[in-house]
Amino acid sequence: MQPEKEVVMPRLPVLAESLAEGPPRGPTQLGQLLADYREYLIQERGLANQTVAGYLSVARQFLSHAASSDGLLLSKLDAKVVSQFVVQAAQHRCVGSTKHLVTGLRSLLRFLHVAGHAPALAASVPPVAGWRGSALPRALPPGDLERLLASCDRQASAGRRDRAMLILLARLGLRVGELVRLELSDFDWRGGEVTIRGKARRQERLPLPVDVGEAVADYIIGGRPTERQGRLFVSAGDQPRCFSAKRVRAALRKACRRAGIPPITAHVLRHTAATEMLRAGASLIDVGQVLRHRSVSTTTMYAKVDRERLRELARSWPETES
After folding, report:
1. 287 and 227 in a common domain
2. Can you give the pLDDT at residue 123?
């Protein structure tokens, strides 16, 4: 019997081309490996497109890190390479982002083992220290949301579009993925509701506040290409394209610069929506329903947003006896 041949992946420049953003391209072994992994995530795991894109990004980063001057020897991968990758990546990430990284890395390593390319290394991925509920939700200070919305030029089509996106994120607490999946047919104008396509392909209907409906209608009538059907948010120009999550985040960064406030993530607007609802007298159950939380424990983090009342619960520091 002939010994099993090692799977050797090419180094630069082919490796650099294979690690480019987007679906794996080209006839290279690495490109085929990523294509097989993508098919595995979709067909075997049944993951959503956005999750698949995130896992493929982690795969590209890890395979680039694991490659040496001799190429990428999958059969020679060991726990040391895995640990070094996580430690280096964690230096530039927050706790939540690092947890997503190690989840994607474990998925890749399980695939490599099942496919016969590498030893079983999923268990060697180090866990990420982080305690649920230890941080306070970060919301925009009062007045910053108004400045953010006011920074959008309502006389321009792009300004109407950006304002509609921001107000949907800040008033309904949408996730970026939910925002870009919105379609024209999701809005029931007569009933005053909007259908949200959330996690795990769930569809839920939410009431459409008047100011949100006005902003969206203003964009549809005065800023959106009228001949384009399907997705709500599309780019202007001769060939309109659907908005991606990356472009939404870029629009948010530009709005922050115009408003003169520090840059924020879209999730800060989700926290802002929850905080404003609580200040208006809504219960945690109401907030959980609007944000579409699966578990009540996820919503309880917002019980800490009223810092003045929290100070009343805090015990004073015992004084030192003289």
Report:
1. yes
2. 92
| Same-domain check for residues 115 and 190 | no
- Does residue 76 share a domain with residue 223? no
Annotation says 202 is catalytic: no
Better-scored residue on pLDDT, 188 or 8: 188
Q: How far is the C-alpha of 194 from the C-alpha of 185, rounded, in Å?
A: 9
Strands 193-197 and 187-188: antiparallel
User: Which residue out of 175, 224, 271, 292 is catalytically annotated?
Assistant: 175
**299 and 166 within one domain:** yes
Out of 40, 55, 219, 302, the active site residue is 302
Burial class (CB in 10 A: 0-12, 13-18, 19+), 85: buried
113 is catalytic: no
Residue 267 annotated to the active site: yes
CA–CA separation, 86 vs 221, rounded Å? 48
Element (H, E) at 9: strand 8-9
User: Are 82 and 189 in a shared domain?
Assistant: no
Instruction: Indicate whether 293 pLDDT > 60.
Output: yes
Picking from 193, 297, 279, 280, the residue whose alpha carbon sits closest to that of residue 288 is 297
Q: Which of 138, 199, 253, 279 is catalytic?
A: 199
Q: How many domains does the chain have?
A: 2
Residues 176 and 120 in one domain: no
Site of tokens 């520090």:
262
Q: What is the CATH number of the domain that holds 228?
A: 1.10.443.10
Residue that is written with structure tokens 């690690």 in the block:
19
The catalytic residue among 60, 161, 163, 270 is 270
Amino acid in the structure at residue 144: D
pLDDT (tens digit per residue) in 69-87: 566 788 888 999 999 999 9
Residue 152 domain boundaries: 144-306
